[in-house]
Write a structure and sequence with these properties.
The chain is of the alpha/beta class. 42% of the residues lie in helices and 12% in strands. The longest helix is centred in the N-terminal third of the chain and has 22 residues. The structure holds glutamine and zinc ion. The site of zinc ion has 6 residues, from loops. Catalyzes the transfer of a methyl group from 5-methyltetrahydrofolate to homocysteine resulting in methionine formation.
Amino acid sequence: MTATSAAAAARATVYGYPRQGPDRELKKAVEGYWKGRVGAGALRETAAGLRRDTWRQLADAGLDEVPTGDFSLYDHVLDTTVMVGAIPERHRAAVAADPLDGCFAMARGTQDAAPLEMTKWFDTNYHYLVPELGPGTVFAADPAKQLGELAEARAMGLAARPVLVGPVTYLLLAKPAPGVPADFDPLTLLDRLLPVYAQVLADLRAAGARWVQLDEPALVQDRTAGELAATERAYRELGGLTDRPELLVATYFGRLGEALPVLARTPVEGLALDFTEAGAGNLADLAAAGGLPGKRLVAGVVDGRNIWVNDLEKSLATLGTLLGLADRVDVAASCSLLHVPLDAAVEHGIDPQILRWLAFARQKTGEVVTLAHALSAGAGAIAGELAANRAALASRAGSPITFDPAVRARAAAITAAGTHRPQPYAERAAAQRAQLALPLLPTTTIGSFPQTGDLRAARADLRAGRIGAGEYEERIRAEIREVIAFQEKAGLDVLVHGEPERNDMVQYFAEQLTGFLATRHGWVQSYGTRYVRPPILAGDVSRPGPMTVRWTAYAQSLTRRPVKGMLTGPVTMLAWSFVRDDQPLGDTARQVALALRDEVADLEAAGTSVIQVDEPALRETLPLRAADRPAYLAWATEAFRLATGRVRPDTQVHTHMCYAEFGDIVQAIDDLDADVISLEAARSHMQVAHELAAHGYPREAGPGVYDIHSPRVPSRDEAAALLRTGLTAIPAERLWVNPDCGLKTRGWPETRSSLENLVAAARTVRGEL
Ligand code: GLN
Ligand code: ZN
């Protein structure tokens, strides 16, 4: 590496940091506030303390600029909605009465006002609240949160860079508000929105911000000429302002492509690009475009989405090339570190030999600082770090964990026949109708029932050795008895065992398969106060023994109604884990699918006639660029068929998806060759039913009629109305009645009432047929 002394000292930064705190203090404070146990002042103080701790750590680690405004009590897109004053009509009174409670009302809904829709943030497992806009939207700047956090960081004597969701991405992520025609394009509001951003920028400058970061990840997706023109207009206008800080437009999650020259010719001072595998192409594109003369380039060379240590030498080579292409090159993680856990150093349960392959947010911050140092001072300045890094990478490449010959041989022997059910769907549907004898509009749930404090306590007791395996099993069986009894009494048609034994739908399986590592503290925000601990898929995958059969068989022994077996599909196992980056994803998916295939066979042999394989992540993992999608969908759907393809024709295979829009993957859903699919639909007013119908989807489907993301109980009439809407798209012979998703985050009282109303709605609508 030849760092030239002419280059200004490279700076190290990150775009955002995990919000939760080392012990998920934020979750506890926010949930405590909701329950009335924590006051507003205490909540604010906890949040401020967490921000201070984060900035202190980042500065101590050697970051030159800390991000502000990326923190959120719930979601930063919701915060942006507040910042631009786009509060939906139905929440305006609540927000005016109390901004904090109003904000939570928008996120979670109240008995009177539905929450904002929630969906995946690009192809991550983070969920944001979708802005609702219409021709009547009036924006107004409300920079209080941004100004407050900037002031806090500056009070600590730090160079702080406020981070905002950029105006183009904000509008591209928005949806027409309820009642606004579906073809309304929120981007038409750009001219109305820009003055609000101008105001916020002026206020931030006045408050001492030298730089402001505007996040525009939407520009790494395929964009129309009109959208690119709007982008250019936006940044010409913001760049042309005189009273503003310097502007850094940050892009991540992929290659910027045709938006790169567009942004490069606007008068913004800096551009941040993703130079990890996901952003492959940015380097060549940048060189082809003649670089960014006169601008600051922030190079995202440390992958912000996975947990593997950086290949420092490779990153240094990239940075070295970039030095010639911009005025100033700074080093960053490729995206906000929100998507990785906080600190690998606290994972005492992981073998130290493996631990050195891993880097979480804190370690990644260190990598960014190390690389910036080498970029300024030369590779010789980090010789020790480079040697340790080389050794860690070599130990991973040569480990028996990453190569199991038996798994490799089985995966290599898969034939086309192994990935297809021999009978066509129509034939299977008839066999299943005869076997299951369900009523029209059959009712079911998605799998989990409330994960009560008692259940979590039982698991904690087992881990701590306070109870033995026998006692734990009995507690789980008692819960299954209760769940089955409730469902029989409520009159549901296809029952579930309730998943009481599962801490999490991915982790539960990961703990029983080889190749996965578990973390103790590796929490990552999924939405609001919901955090998950993604397992680390580090090696070859196999199934030492049955994983779910005894619970499902026990539940089935308690009832004459069919009990659904419940598994997590291969794509979701990958999507909600940190996956290995040393082989194609499709190869990893096949290994998981083969393990599930054995589980499916064991369930069927144990008398299970309905088996659900959840793939809620199928859509979220869809590549952001259309050109990359066919290859992904080919391996993803094949993995599902590999997992489910060996069952008898009268065994009904279900799948389930949620948290996303499905319009663009209906063909892929069809290609799964499942018999029944349940989908999230309640918040989007059964939109998905129409999308399935428009495609001519021939199978059975249950668009959700009960939004389980909020404690609100849907009335019978409300569920019935949604069902009638569903019937306008899907005929009664193929329509199922179910909630949007599992009930694990809900309490028993609301679950009972909601499911009773759901069954009552099904009966009402059956009576109308
Ligand atoms: N079967 C799972 C459950 O009910 C599905 C969860 C999900 O799709 N996210 O909890
Ligand atoms: Zn779901």
